Amino acid sequence: MNTASQDVARSGEVVRDLSAIRLSDEVEAGGKGANLGELTAAGLPVPAGFVILRDGYLDAMRRGGVADELAAEHRRALASIGDDQALARHCEQLRALVAKAGMPPDLADRITLAYQRLGTDTAEAVVAVRSSATGEDSASASFAGMNATFTNISGPAALLDAVQRCWASLFSPRAETYRAERSFAGEPAMAVAVQIMLAAERSGVAFTADPSTGERDRVVIEAARGQGEVVVSGAVEPDHYVLAKDDLRILQAHRGSQAFEIVRGDSGDSGGDRSIALAGAGQDRPVLTDDELQAIARLAIAGEKHYGRPQDVEWVIDDGGRIWLVQARPITTIDRPAAATTTVPAGVQLAAGLAASPGIASGAVRILSRPAEGSRLRDGEVLVAAMTTPDWVPTIRRAAALVTDSGGTTCHAAIVARELGVPCVVGARTATTSLVDGQIVTVDGGVGRVFSGSHPLAQPVQVAEPHLAEAEPPVVTATKIYVNLAMPDAAESVAAQNVDGVGLLRAEFMLTQALGGRHPRDLIARGEQEHFVTAMSESVQRIAAAFAPRPVIYRTTDLRSNEFRGLTGGADYEPVEDNPMIGYRGCFRYIHEPDMFALELAALARARELNPNIHLMLPFVRTRWELGQCLDLIDASPLGHSRGLHRWVMAEVPSVVYWLPEYAGLGIDGVSIGSNDLTQLVLGVDRDSQPCAEVFDESDPAVLDAIARIVGIARDHDLTSSLCGQAPSTRPGYAASLVGMGITSISVNPDAASHVRRAVAAAEQRILLDASLTRLHRS
Q1: Active centre residues (catalytic)
Q2: What is the pLDDT at residue 342?
Q3: Domain total in the chain
Q4: What confidence score (pLDDT) does residue 419 get?
Q5: Do 353 and 232 have their domain in common?
Q6: Is 143 contained in some domain?
Q7: 508 Cβ contact partners less than 8 Å away, ≥ 6 residues apart
Q8: Which of 330, 362, 386 is the last residue before a domain boundary?
Q9: Which whole-number Å values give the CA distances from 257 to 206, 486, 547, in the listed order?
Q10: Is residue 110 part of a domain?
């Protein structure tokens, strides 16, 4: 046999029909492929398809001449875990190597032949292309969402491209970190499952045990209209049902909220996915009938009986009303024990400051002077610094606690620490000199103190207050209570609280994390614009999906020169300003650097394709002409054509009191008062200045008068009004004052949302009572 014939034979061995695959083929077919084959063999309804076995990937890398280089780079990537910037660089190089290797022509021919067999004489098949990595969907690791899946793929060229993109998805920072945390040894490899893509009328998941309580005598089903990714990604609130496993009685039925569905795109657009808004009857009726619920439960239970353990099953009802299973895997968290908590005794007080983020943690002190030293911080150490800015975020994520010399409770260190659930003390003044590297300390972020010694069970306290919602009925208010967010890490837990959405999603921290600490202009200079768009859109999507259908107001990056000089490459692009607080930032900067602004708008446009609850807010708007030119840039971008997009402005500069009617005439939808910056500029004081701390007062009559004027003007021009600042969180009467002004919403830190809502409810009740008494007296 000549070389060409050997290659064809080898490629034929690595493309196998689902009907010929069993669970015992997990190593070659990956977890997803093996489970689909096993379900097929069990006689359960599974769409037809085939699997490109892992040897297809390995052979392509060998024949492409990159196998050895991949192995070496992968070892370097594993060694860099904990260093977000280095890991991102290594993963980017790994994906570039996969792309360089390409796909051998004979393997491409074999895949194309298998694909053509799925079609008919008159039409090519529409398929789903799904990563099936070694160990994925196994009893010990789900790999949920770690690797790529592509839906509604049509045509050989699109299929081959999707297969190679699945291969490349092996090497994302999240996948590498997940494998390391799960102690997966050896070189990663990827099989790819290709299945007939059903025209999904309704889709969802079914658990044959309750994943939250561990009860095995029930089936939990969640359902939505259209394709199932809106359920598994959390993009919508699905209908939720609980059935008794023995007789399929419906024990619970909770109606969800679905503003849109994802369906197959038009053939004229080469297939793909399409998002369709739902309204009226499309939202009002249950997704499933009782008969359909019970039929899905029977299929899921049949899968559990076949495997002999509780299963997490994905199902689809096609446009003909038939129910199919499209994935099954063991429930990996059902036996996980709950984490323990304890109270930590205090030692000798070593430092004191402001209580910025609650929680108690012990660890060795690590004093750092700049973000570039972040690699010196070992996981679980206490980060001590003079002050922190967004480029510190990767380091803060690995810290047990954070202590800073300067700053207030609204500074960057405090904000990001609360987001990540890291105990934090700010404004400790002498922490970098009174504490010593290696010294063991306990940080109590709830009281703003640092003590000597440690406690072996000290743990951070997470941000959310879930027990309040469980212990008492949810408080309802006419004034919306939003939260301020800066990172996707806490999105799911915060979204579970009784909040109405995200009133301020800060871009700066996400940008720092998503770009691995690199300045955006550094990416542009190297032609990596797509990396910017992809990374930022994925971060925003994660938050928007957690809160959907509640609104998420994304504030575009407020590029202050002093903060962004610290990013990789930042010194080459950022001016040195004596007073960056009122310098080159906000709308003015967008006008002068439209190419960088365009990347952010492109990222938001991509995120809104699946998450139409995302809206836009522009920071630091000084004048009408600035806003007008920025709105023109938005209109000219892909985001400008996004239906239902609301455009807000931040009210941080006092000039907004004069210009707001003109802003309304330009077509904005809302205004959000940044009370921290507005206070600084009304009173002429730096909020982070320790000597001037007593001057900074959001309750100063001049500040309150400016806020009242802004709210009144907004009301007169049919604009929504909000406030995102620290005062409502810390001063009980402040929220009541805002309600009295007629503000539409208040956006606060997640840890304050519950008590602010109660304060707002009390204020609203007093207003109603006063109005009733007035009417009574008049009568």
Answers
A1: 412, 724
A2: 39
A3: 4
A4: 59
A5: no
A6: yes
A7: 390, 486, 557, 558, 563
A8: 330
A9: 18, 25, 11
A10: yes
The predicted structure's pLDDT at residue 468? 31
Query: Could you tell me which of 247, 238, 239 has the C-alpha nearest to residue 219?
Result: 247
pLDDT < 50: residue spans in the chain = 1-12, 136-145, 181-183, 185, 233-235, 268-270, 281, 333, 336-344, 409-410, 460-472
CB 358 within 8 A of CB 445: yes
How many Cβ atoms sit within 10 Å of the Cβ of residue 487? 22
Place of tokens 């797509």: 530
Range of the domain at 238: 200-330
Same domain, 377 and 310: no
**Which residues neighbour 779 within 8 Å (Cβ) at sequence distance 6 or greater?**
none
Alpha helices in 84-169 (DSSP H): 84-101, 105-116, 156-168
In this structure, the chain runs to a length of: 779
* Torsion sign (Cα): 362, 366, 368, 372: negative
CB 645, CB 608: distance < 8 Å: yes
* SS3 labels along 631-649: HHHHHCCHHHHCCCCCEEE
Residues 211 and 297 in one domain: yes
Predicted pLDDT at 340: 35
Helix (H) or strand (E) holding 737: helix 732-741
The SS3 assignment for 323 reads strand
H-state helical runs in 189-345: 229-232, 281-284, 290-307
Please report, for the domain that includes residue 219, its CATH number: 3.30.470.20
Produce one character per residue of 703-737: b if its CB has 16 or more CB atoms within 10 Å, e if not: bbebbbbbbebbeeeebbbbbbbbbbbeeeebbbb
CATH classification of the domain holding 552? 3.20.20.60
Best CA proximity match to 21, nearest among 190, 151, 191: 191
What stretch of H or E contains 78?
helix 67-79
Tokens of 480: 């919306």
